[in-house]
Specification:
Family: Belongs to the HPF/YfiA ribosome-associated protein family. Short HPF subfamily.
Distance between the termini: 49 Å
Largest sheet: 4 strands, mixed
GO molecular function: ribosomal small subunit binding
Shape: elongated
Number of domains: 1
CATH superfamily: Ribosome hibernation promotion factor-like
Biased composition (Basic and acidic residues): 88-97
Helix content: 40-55%
GO cellular component, one term: cytosolic small ribosomal subunit
CATH class: Alpha Beta
Keywords: Translation regulation
Strand content: 25-35%
Strand order of the largest sheet: 1-2-3-4
CATH topology: Double Stranded RNA Binding Domain
Structural class: alpha+beta
Length: 108
């Protein structure tokens, strides 16, 4: 898993880097192969923004969140990203468990 963390108008301290890697690291439980994750942290006046791009085999996930605290924004980002990936995987499993057409035609 390759995690790239960049900051715009904010210094990415070791504490922030550790927090991002801890929270985003939970995503790798959904995938067996290595991931490419880009996290961008920005500060605009009183808003702390966090956005992430996750690149997995042919699928890209993008999440953006804004909070009053950077750590809250990172937590929210990880939660939203986790939900988006779970929803995608549920859609994939629902599509794979349909019956083949030849079985449906024989029943008619």
């Amino acid at each position: 898993m390759k995690v790239t963390i960049t900051g715009q108008h904010i210094e990415v301290t070791p504490a922030i880097r550790d927090h991002v890697e801890e929270k985003i690291g939970r995503i790798k439980r959904h995938f067996e192969h290595p991931l490419d994750i880009n996290v961008v942290l920005t500060v605009e006046k009183l808003k702390h923004n966090a956005e992430a791009n996750v690149h997995v085999n042919g699928k890209d996930f993008f999440v953006h969140t804004s909070q009053e605290d950077m750590y809250e924004a990172i937590d929210d980002l990880a939660h939203l990203l986790d939900r988006q990936i779970i929803k995608h995987k549920e859609r994939q499993s629902d599509q794979r468990h349909g019956q083949p057409l030849k079985h449906l035609a024989n029943g008619v």
